[in-house]
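Re: [help] complex structure
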Amino acid sequence: MKRLDQVRQLLAEHSASDRIGMTAREVGQVLKLDRSTVSRYLNRLVKETEVEKLPGRPVRFRSVQPPLSQPVEEWVYSPQDRPGSLIGNETEMKEALAALLYPPRGLPLLLEGETGTGKTHLVEQVVHQAREQGKIRSTQPFVTFNCSEYAQNPELLMGQLFGIRKGAFTGAASDRTGLVERADGGILFLDEIHRLPPVGQEMLFHLIDQGVYRRLGEAELERQASIRLIGATTERPDQVLLPTLLRRFAVKLTLPSLGQRERREREKLVDAFFIEEARHMALDIRLDFRCRQAFLEYSCPGNIGQLKGDVQHACAQAFLRHLYEPSPSVTIRREDLPAAVSRVWRASALASPPFPSTLTDGGEKTVYSELLRKEQELSARGWSRHERIRELKQMASQYLKRSAHPADDRRQTGGEQLQEVISHLTRPLTEGQQEALESLIRSLTIEGDQPSRPFPETESLPEEHRKAAHSLAQAVTDQGFSLPEEAWKEIAHLLSAFHESESASAEGVPVLIVTHGESTATSMAQVANALLGDERVHAVDMPLDQPASIALQRVSNRVASLHRGNGILLLVDIGSLTTMGEDISREHGISIHTLSDVTLSMVIHAARKAQTPGWDAQRLMESVRDRFPAPVSTLSPTQRRRVVGVVCPQGEGSIPALKDWVKNNLENKEIDVLSGEWNPHQSDSFDQVLHEWHQSGEIIALVGTHSPPNGNIPFFHAWELLQPDGIRRWKEQLAKTGSPS
Ligand SMILES: Nc1ncnc2c1ncn2[C@@H]1O[C@H](COP(=O)(O)OP(=O)(O)OP(=O)(O)O)[C@@H](O)[C@H]1O
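Output below.
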């Protein structure tokens, strides 16, 4: 904490209990600072009317805080409050705006600052203001790209930026437009610009300098583009950028870390973030003195970004409690604070009374409305209160990227006890088998009486496995755990898998699990591999905050490395993952069969059958699908309708006109046009839109006003469709995906 803040805080705490104030010497003694330094700070605080000088000698100083008789015990943030879109950074804002608007096409601007200091936010605000002021037309593109997304693959990174000519490198199956081309006439914001390899930096330099560039693999044709360039980096620019490129950035700004900011600014940030949450919830949020104080003091290495995330974390926890304790507003308590914040929470003379809260949906789709929707859905499905709270807690922590530790999970579900029951009942099983069985039964008990899916049929299973599963399910129920009536069927499949030995073939079909979450896929693969005694199941975890493009790249790399000639079985959970197989299959020409709604027993079955001699991915997929019939969906592009999606960020209002345009310009009336909005601030929002559309058919192209965060489906910028080249590309794309005869 800065010294000025230490002085301010000491006086605030002292004045709260003792109104006679402190002398400069006393303050110096407590803080171990010399008196003249303390006097300087005290006079500054007096000037800023935060501290008052009391009459008499020696001069005593007292914080201008409300007297104890009327303590400010709590802050109330209301949805009617206006949070302010940019806090601090006014000077940087002015300079950045001046750079952006400098004639004729702006001065290249470079922002430097630690992660979370607000570089992206500043750029967004600058562009917003330039548009508001009419200095930049809203039709001029604003393309943003984070170079770290493709940092592991420099070719792809540069291809993404400058475009690719067909055949430029292995896998470049068609010509591809780059972001430079999309940003032509507008603004290109390159975040983490230092991730560009030197040759890419050279190309960028050439573009800024001469206004020309080439697509990758294009030797003859030189293309022109006029862009306003903004770069951002978390590194020291002189250590990571080529001097030639660095010199071309005429304006360089450094954003301060949170620790370097004035306390006033931090207060404004904390208040703004709470107001933002109150607006999302459409409810007042109450926060007591000590909690707010903790937010002002804790060490926050992730800067403003982390501060905002931690405020959201506390709000989500409080909102969750509020769902079960209806009252007119949401109150943040110490137990809601993230650990780092809670650690600096201190008992204070100012106590806060408990406050009640109510239930209202803010309308907008936020973590709160989602929690609320989930709660209603689970109630309607008859989940018990205990189970609902558990589920919602998990959901909240997922949203906040704080997925619960598996050990906690086990404790919450009475897992230890369950484990004991199972190990007692199933002594002959190996440790790995017991673990698998326990996982399965735990997931079945969580589902309660009304499972979300039908159970697999068991006619083909040996009678002894059916009977054993029956008794096991009965025994588990007798121990007080609630299992769905037909849960034994799934257990029977698992028991059958344990006992069936397969003659392994060296080839086999690789099974790859891809699911959302930090470790879900890996855990399933580990259990299955432990059980079957080898490493035939592979996994890719998809943390919720990871961009879809990176996930696709990771899965694609994994598919390429696993492929042995018999295709791949992809087992996925939900969302846009179901479309991945198709994209990757096209990219590598590998036969990929995808099944969704993966469960542990499905993985075990697939792993067991994967080594069957002579089987390929299709045969394996059919076997798994037959065993686990619904709601498993196989994705066969040949039987599906084709869909063009019109997609814009929320609140843009351009969807109806765009949708009409697309419909009127589609020669093939068999293509469906769907539209939807996504929330740029919610990492999986775009995936959800894709997932919904995917139910209706294969998405062959996207049209919108902003590039969506998914680079796998061909995207057409609205303005591009009005250009002759855009229309040509559009027609080509539709023709390319024509229905197979
Ligand atoms: N000055 C500000 N006023 C209000 N909110 C801000 C401010 N600066 C940043 N934020 C908020 O903090 C969060 C993090 O900011 P941002 O993503 O711009 O940081 P960054 O420096 O680009 O981080 P990174 O280097 O990790 O990409 C954003 O949600 C943004 O809305």
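Residues 86-89, 113, 115-121, 191, 234, 272, 304-305, 308 surround adenosine-5'-triphosphate (CB under 6 Å).
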